[in-house]
Amino acid sequence: MIEYNFRQIVQKYADSKKIDILWQEIALQYSDTKRSYHTLGHLENLIVELMEVREEINDWSAIVFAVVFHDYIYDSARFDNEEQSAEIAQSHLQTLCLPADIIMRCITHILATKGHSLCGDNDTNLFTDSDLSILGKNWESYLDYSRQIRDEYSLYSDAEYNAGRKNVLTHFLTMKRIYKTPYFYEKYELQARENIAIELEMLNVLNK
User: Fold this and answer.
1) In this structure, are residues 107 and 93 in contact, taking their beta carbons and an 8 Å threshold?
2) Distances (CA, A) of 127 to 45, 52, 87, 92, 165
3) CB 197 within 8 A of CB 174
4) How many CB atoms lie within 10 A of CB 148?
């Protein structure tokens, strides 16, 4: 579904050959063997979630581009993945001669995934909420996700990873709301908090 949506929008700006080359580049990037969670499957989940609220989204093109590029760079040893991904998105979209306002909205959405904080733009809030939707899935899906994230951070020892992961999970639990928008809040908030609390307890047991 993500490839279809991407092609539907880009065809307004590029011929099929150029689109094929660009999509192959994107697919290759998300198929890197170091990735376990941040793959094309992750993008697919986001677009499925966002399709459910498409009527609430003002700029669908910017959202689709944000989905495609937001994890283009993903290296567990870096702390500027979002900024690097935004730069690549800007470069590609400028090459396609997209309108500047669409490009800027796309960049805003991507950079917002660094902190997932409440934003004044509802499109951004819907996008970042969809990015966190995995937290509120059923426990089996959440457990798969947590294992995949651990795989992506395999360069760190268990002690290092567990300490960092606990900080991230605790941050989410201390937030007044994990999900900013009514749709995602109603759909995922309670289950997300339950899943996070269980994983935290599991990590605490491992540290004993």
Assistant:
1) no
2) 12, 12, 18, 20, 23
3) no
4) 17
Q: Write out the chain in H/E/C secondary structure.
A: CHHHHHHHHHCCCCCHHHHHHHHHHHHHHHCCCCCCCCCHHHHHHHHHHHHCCHHHCCCHHHHHHHHHHCCCCCCCCCCCHHHHHHHHHHHHHHHCCCCHHHHHHHHHHHHHCCCCCCCCCHHHHHHHHHHCHHHHCCHHHHHHHHHHHHHHCCCCCHHHHHHHHHHHHHHHHHCCCCCCCHHHHHHHHHHHHHHHHHHHHHHHHHHC
**Count of Cβ atoms closer than 10 Å to residue 39 Cβ:** 18
Q: What is the pLDDT of residue 208?
A: 55
What's the Cα-to-Cα distance from 165 to each of 5, 116, 157, 168, 176, rounded to whole Å?
Answer: 33, 16, 12, 5, 19
pLDDT value of residue 46: 98
Mean pLDDT by 10 residues, the chain (208 residues): 96 94 97 97 98 98 98 94 98 95 98 93 98 98 98 95 95 95 98 98 80
Place of tokens 């065809």: 11
* CB neighbours of residue 6 within 10 Å: 21
End-to-end CA distance of the chain: 44
Distance CA 66, CA 105 (A): 8
- List the Cα angle 143/51/142 in 5-degree steps: 5
Q: Give the start-to-end residue ranges of the domains of the chain.
A: 2-115, 135-207
